[in-house]
Structures are given as C-alpha cells and as structure tokens.
Amino acid sequence: MGKGLGRYLAYRILLLFPLLFGVSVLTFLLVRLGDSSPAVMVAGPTATEAQIRDIEADMGLDRSVPVQYWTWLTDALRGDLGTSWMSNRPVTEELWEKLPITLELIGFGILGAILFGVLVGVASAVRQRGVVDQVLRIITLAGVSIPLFWGALLMITLFFTVLGWAPAPLGRVDRGMAMPPHLTGMLVLDSVLSGYLATAVSALAHLALPVLTITLITGATIAKQARAAMVETLGSPAVRYARACGMSERGVVWLAFRNAVPDLIGYFGITFSLALGGAAITELIFSWGGLGQLGLEAITNADFAVVQGFILVMGVLTALIYLVADLLVAAIDPRVKLQ
Amino acid sequence: MTVPTTPDASAGLPIGGPPAHVDHDQPGAARAAARGFWRFVRSSPAAFTGTTIVLAFVVLAALADVLIATDPLQVFGRDLLVAPNSEHWFGTDGNGMDVFARTVHAIRIDLLISVSAVGLSIVVGVALGLIAGYRGGWFEMILLRVMDVLQAFPALILALAVVAAAQESITAVIAVIAFLDTPVFIRMTRGQVLSLREAMYVEAARSTGNKPWRIMWRHIMPNTLPPLIIQTAVRLAWSVMIVSSLAFVGVGIQVPTPEWGAMIRHGSAYVTSGQWWPSVFPGLALMLLVLGFNLLADAIQDHLDPRKD
C-alpha cells in the first residue's frame, strides 16, 4: 500500500483546501448576517453612536464584507487569524494553547464511547430478542434520547451534589495543585511524564465525569449502530455457512464481529463529527477551559475572529476524523481500495 | 390517460403501507388510512409507546391553557427555588416561576420550531432531491458539492454561530434548523429517485407521454414516501435536541420564555447547591419527547421493512 497510501493522503489533504475555503466563506457571511456587532460589546453600554463607529472603523468592520473577507483570507494564508477582542491575544496562539486541552477530553471520551458502545451493541445482538437484548435496547434508547448537556447536569447532580464522589465541576484539576511543566499541553500526560503523580490523580478525577457523560451518551448511539451491524452480519450467508460447518458459537460471533467492523468504523466517523458540538457544550458545563468553551464564549460575545478560527479548527478536526475512519477501513477491509 | 399509478390513498396515508384495496372515494380512503394507522399502533410495544408519548405531548401543548391554571410567567414573589410540593408540583425556579406550568407550556415552542423546521426542509429537500435525481447534470453536481461543505463541520456549532448573530429570533432558529435538515432529505430523495428512474413503470409512464414534472410528482414521489416518513421522525427528534441545545448555550430563545433548554440553562446554576428541580424536570420532558420520536422512527422502520426479524 506504501506508494499508493502516500498519494491518497496527498489527495485527501489537497481536498481539504477547497473544503476549508467553503467553510470559511460560509462562516464569514453567516456571522456578519446578524445585527450583533463586537464594536457595541467593546464600547460598552454607555458608548455614543460616534464612539461605536470609531471602534468599528478600528476593527475594519465598516468596510464591505468581500473586502473584509479578502483581508482575513490573505492574513490567514500567512498564518495570522486576527486578534481576539476579548483577550486581546492572537487567535492562533489561543487556539494552539486550547487544542490539547480539548483533545485530551475528546480522546478519552471517544475511547470510552467506542468500548462501551461496541460491547453493549455486540452483547445485545448476540442475545437478539432475549431479556438481555431488551434491557440493553431500552438503556440504549434512553441514552440516544438524552441531550449531552442535560446528561452532564444529571451526572453532576448525582455524583457531585448527592453522592459527593466527584470533584466540583470547575476545571481540569483541583485548585492549588502543582502544575507540571508544559510538554504536550495534555495535563494527565504531562503530569505523568514529569512525575507529578498527585496532579495526575486529581486531573483524572476531574476527567471522570465529563468523560463518563460522553462515554454513555455518545456510546449509546454507537451501541445502536453496533447492534444493527451485528444483527446484519449474524444473519449473513457467511455466518450461516460457518455455523453449518460446525464452528463454535464463540468463533461465529468473532467472525460476525470482524465482518461488522468496517461498517462500524464508518459510523464512528459520522457519530464523532456530530459529537464535537456536544463535547463543546460539555466543556462549558465543566468549565473545562478548552477549545469548545473558548469557541462558545466567542460565539455568544460576537468575537468574530475567534469564531472564525474555532470553526476552521472544527472543520479540520471533522475532516481528520473522516480521514482516519477511511484509512482504518481500507487497512482492515480487503474489499476496499483507496483511490 | 390511464397509467398504472400508485393509488391516491397511499399518498395521503401517514403510516402503514398501502391499503388492502384501492379506494377512490374520499371517505373510503380516510377509513383505510385510519385502519393502517391502527394496525401500526398495535404492531409493536415501541409503536404503541412512541405514538402515545407524541400524541400526549401534542394534546398537552394544545390544551396547556385550559389544563393548567398557573401562568408560566407568573412570579411567586417570595417562593424562590421551592422544592416540589402539592402547590408547585415541580417546584419553583430561581425567578419564582412555577416549573410545572413552564415545562408544559414549553412543549408549544419546541414543537412549533421543530415541526416548522422539519416541514420546511421536507418541502425544499424533496423538491431539490427530485430535480437533482431526475434531471442530474450541473444542478446535481453543484448541489452535491455544497452539501459536502456543509457536512464538513459540526452542525450544532454552525447553528450556534448563526443564531447568535441573529440574536433572539424564533424565525432564525427555524431557518437554521431547516437549513441543516435539508441535505438529509435531498440525499435521501435523490437516492430513491436514482433507483426508481429506470423502473419499468416509470418507463411506461414516460412512453405514454407524461410530462417530466408529472412523472416526478405522481409516479416517483409517492414511492419515496416510506423512507421519508422514517427520516421525518428521526429529524424531529434531532431538531428538538438542537432547539434546546441552542437555548442552553444562551443563543436563540431566552428566559423568561418557557423553553426547555433555556430553563435547564437557568436551572443549571443551582445544581451544585442541591436545587435540582428547575433543571431536571424540563430535561425529563425533553428526553421523553425525543424518546417518543425515536421510538416512532424505529417502529415505523420495523413496520415497513418486510424482512423484519
């Protein structure tokens, strides 16, 4: 696959540019469609009409939208995404700083959701129509119907307020903990690497609730898909043939599972790109301080430059998720050829 | 012109496949539709539960003013954050408003927005999907490229950015959700049309001189209905979630308007101090309605799928 893989990757990365261009144009237009203006926010409630107009001119918002976009685009191609008016820092710097914080949360969440979802889905499909299946299907259906943000609040109510097991949902680590030196920006990893074990434990405790929320709720969607895929392969001619040849039940389930994996990975891509938005709201609830919280606060405060950069990063993340899913399928399924 | 078309009855039939016999008179068609519906409701526990939940919510929304004496916007001055009791069944929130009255009244706005948004996206999506699938060409190509771009980022975040820019406006929320729902219906209808376009009966209709729009509307469209009905239930569930997610983040609909997401946002401030009722009850209602739509979608799929297990 060596040479073909390189060409395929180059093709997919090239494809990313028109896509991101489209996304950036759309975001730029839609954000400026409304009548909320950052100038009004910067100026404050007592500002006069003239002051607001001055600030608008300062920010370049008085020019026509195509001119504004052209300026933004030429700057962006040089790696400058503008400045946030909320923090007065370059957008690229802020995004770069927050990205690992979010990746840590999403990484654990995705891992948990896949493990939970696949286990439940396969168990359900193997015991199709039995009691276990019925119970698991009801749990799955409830999970699919709960919005992530409400699920997070339920978790906090139960595990923090009532039981007192989890730490307060205020950030990534207990206050006053010694912070490890910045290596990757992922707190658990940095703490372990530099030997700050108490910090690592505290960080893991803070991760538990948001990760559990994502695991259960996103995992429910995966469980539903996994069950459907397994039911399909368990009834396939290949499996019936294996049964007829006298293969053990364990072997049959393994065979059916292996045949279901390519479909499942395809579903993972869709599910996780949809879950990015929900994960951003989860950050907001746990005051996580990552990319999601930054982006959502920028959205509610009309911090246009940050919104633009945030959505661009989300676009890249989504494209990466799809790319990884496609590569995995190609690696596993001999019927699929990269082109 | 007598061409074998799908009987009119099945076009107006909400759920349950074509009727047992072809009724050309209106009362007969209505009876057949009712029979089909009843057959569906009894087909599985999921169908029964889903139908019951959704119907109950619709009835509650319609009769909210009659059934509940308490005004959802009335402030009970000193009774802030009162726990659920016989007077305030779901307690009161941080503004001293009755959580029960607000939770029930919120059905209206959430249903209004999601039903209008999904309705709008069906009209636009099916029309564009029919044309793209039947005609193809440059129109289809541009449409598919645009949808690729739309798929490239999380829908929820796009919706947030747009609705925040438009500020508190129900129209903006409806427009954004419809915009995000439309590609689903375009893709689905187009896929159906592509497979039906070459069908023998469409060929026959074409050879007897039917105009393209008549073939699309009378011959192809009715046969795209079953997947459309399933997808409608799925998208309704999704839309209700998005409406409340937007309000939860603080864009779109705001307190004091009774809306589940906005209520949960407002109530979330009290979760860590132990006052769970202002956020838990609206969330429960939200979950039930989404569950109802999801059950309906699953049940309709099982009911229409001849290979059902």
From TrEMBL, chain A:
InterPro entries, per database record: BPD_transp_1_N (IPR045621), MetI-like (IPR000515), MetI-like_sf (IPR035906)
Localization: Cell membrane
Broad class of the protein's primary localization: membrane
Residue ranges annotated for the ABC transmembrane type-1 domain, each copy included: 99-329
UniProt keyword annotation of Cell division present: no
SUPFAM superfamilies: MetI-like
Alphabetized UniProt keyword annotations: Cell membrane, Membrane, Transmembrane, Transmembrane helix, Transport
Pfam families xref list: BPD_transp_1, BPD_transp_1_N
Membrane topology classification: Multi-pass membrane protein
Top-rank taxon: Bacteria
Transmembrane regions listed in the UniProt entry: 9-31, 105-126, 138-166, 196-217, 264-286, 306-332
Record carries keyword Membrane: yes
Family: Belongs to the binding-protein-dependent transport system permease family.
Record's protein name: ABC transporter permease
Organism (species): Nocardioides nanhaiensis
TrEMBL record, chain B:
Compartments it resides in: Cell membrane
Record membrane topology: Multi-pass membrane protein
Family as reported in the entry's similarity comment: Belongs to the binding-protein-dependent transport system permease family.
ABC transmembrane type-1 domain location: 107-297
Pfam families linked: BPD_transp_1 (PF00528)
Organism: Nocardioides nanhaiensis
Region of interest: Disordered: 1-26
SUPFAM superfamilies: MetI-like
Stretches of the chain forming a coiled coil according to its record: none
Protein name: ABC transporter permease
Residue spans crossing the bilayer: 46-68, 111-132, 152-180, 236-256, 276-297
Major subcellular location class: membrane
Keywords carried by this UniProt record: Cell membrane, Membrane, Transmembrane, Transmembrane helix, Transport
PANTHER family registered for this protein in UniProt: D,D-DIPEPTIDE TRANSPORT SYSTEM PERMEASE PROTEIN DDPC-RELATED (PTHR43386:SF1), OLIGOPEPTIDE TRANSPORT SYSTEM PERMEASE PROTEIN APPC (PTHR43386)
